[in-house]
Automatic annotation (TrEMBL):
Pfam families: FecCD. Residues 1-28 are annotated as: Disordered. It is a multi-pass membrane protein. It comes from the Bacteria. PANTHER family: FE(3+) DICITRATE TRANSPORT SYSTEM PERMEASE PROTEIN FECC-RELATED, FERRIC ENTEROBACTIN TRANSPORT SYSTEM PERMEASE PROTEIN. The keyword Ribosomal protein does not apply. GO terms for molecular function: transmembrane transporter activity. InterPro entries: ABC_BtuC-like, ABC_transptr_permease_BtuC. CDD domains: TM_ABC_iron-siderophores_like. One of its GO terms (cellular component) is plasma membrane. This is Iron ABC transporter permease. The chain crosses the membrane at residues 37-59, 88-108, 120-141, 147-166, 178-200, 220-245, 266-293, 305-326, 338-355. Residues 1-21 have a biased composition (Polar residues).
């Protein structure tokens, strides 16, 4: 027998249909894995270049050589070096918030088995927004470092309430019940928020700068408190690739494969809440990042969440940083917040992906 050749094996009950032999399947899987790894490396390179561009581009444009010099030979008296260092927190926040939203969006779509799932479906944005408005109106909070704790608490409580409501009944937290509970709670929370805003002009003036979403105006006092939450959330979600693959087959099949569906879904939801809540608290309710990126990623990875999650972690900051960079220069000397730019960029891209028909499949 020639062991170097591959053979076709007939599939029982389907005459004329063949599948690759095990040797062929292993070889094809290894080749696909190498191709995906190459794409992931290329995405990391693009992200690094975009981060460097973020440090150089703005109302005061700087050459990349000056950016490099600001790190290797920093001169406190050099104004260009000071500009570079002032842009570091903004760039780091774009990386962190983008990665968190992309990773959480991919996991959320897997948990809910809903291709339109994003932070809004679990009430994260609505809960965070209401909590921030309450903090401003009741406690007089006026700084981003104060918003973060209210936003995170509101996002976490809202997500837990959505999950508890969806868990009522015989079948537990099904995808349809999660979507309905999230939509209903979001509508109610936004209504309560609007009641406060229409009664207090001062609260509205303070809140609207956070509401549009963006990474401008943040410093290390805003970024650093969120790091532990983001690290724990990312660790949880990145370890759920196999779990999400099982859930994608349906709850009954997942149980047959030995998964404890309720527990695994709750654990994944915890990671999602940590990521979404912290990102929303840090940068405001930025839309489309967690929705568009997982769809786009599936063009490269297929339905395997072991690859979808790391790709989303890398490519989502590309979208957010790219939107932030464009927003800095499109209306000089002013700028457009990143939350607006992601919607302007993400909406047509998402429509194109859905029309192609491949991006919406889970």
């Amino acid at each position: 027998m020639n062991h170097g050749t591959t053979t076709a094996v007939s599939r029982p009950g389907t005459p004329g249909t063949t599948v690759p032999s095990p040797a062929t399947g292993a070889s094809g899987g290894a080749a696909a894995g190498r191709k995906r790894a190459a794409w992931l490396l290329a995405a990391v390179v693009v992200l690094v270049l975009l981060a460097a561009t973020s440090l150089a581009v703005g109302a005061r444009g700087l050459p990349l050589g000056t950016v490099l010099e600001a790190f290797t030979r920093f001169d406190p008296a050099n104004g260009d070096h000071a500009v570079v260092h002032a842009r570091i927190p903004r760039t780091v926040l774009g990386l962190l918030a983008g990665g968190a939203l992309g990773l959480a969006g991919a996991a959320m779509q897997g948990v809910a088995r809903n291709p339109l799932a994003d932070p809004g479906i679990m009430g994260v944005n609505a809960g965070a927004a209401l909590a921030v408005v309450t903090g401003i109106y009741v406690f007089g909070i006026a700084s981003f470092s104060g918003y973060i704790w209210f936003a995170f608490l509101g996002a976490a409580v809202a997500a837990v309430v959505v999950y508890l409501i969806a868990s009522l009944g015989r079948d537990g937290a099904t995808p349809v019940k999660l979507a309905l509970a999230g939509a209903a709670l979001s509508a109610g929370l936004f209504s309560l928020m609007n009641v406060i805003l229409v009664s207090s002009q001062d609260t509205l003036d303070r809140f609207r700068f956070w509401q549009v979403g963006g990474v401008a105006g943040r410093d290390w006092s805003v970024v650093l408190p969120g790091l532990p939450f983001l690290a724990v959330g990312a660790a949880i979600v990145l370890l759920t690739g196999r779990i999400l693959n099982s859930l994608a087959l349906g709850d009954d099949i997942a149980r047959g494969l030995g998964q404890r569906v309720g527990l695994t879904r709750a654990l994944t939801a915890l990671g999602i809440v940590l990521l979404c809540g912290t990102a929303t608290a840090l940068a405001g309710p930025i839309g489309f990042v967690g929705l568009v990126i997982p769809h786009a990623v599936r063009f490269l990875t297929g339905p395997d969440y072991r690859w979808i999650l790391p790709f989303s972690l890398v490519l989502a900051p590309v979208l957010l940083l790219g939107a932030d960079i464009i927003g800095r220069v499109v209306l000089l000397p002013g700028e457009v917040p990143a939350g607006i730019m992601t919607a302007l960029i993400g909406a047509p891209v998402f429509v194109w992906l859905v029309r192609r028909g491949k991006g919406a499949g889970l």
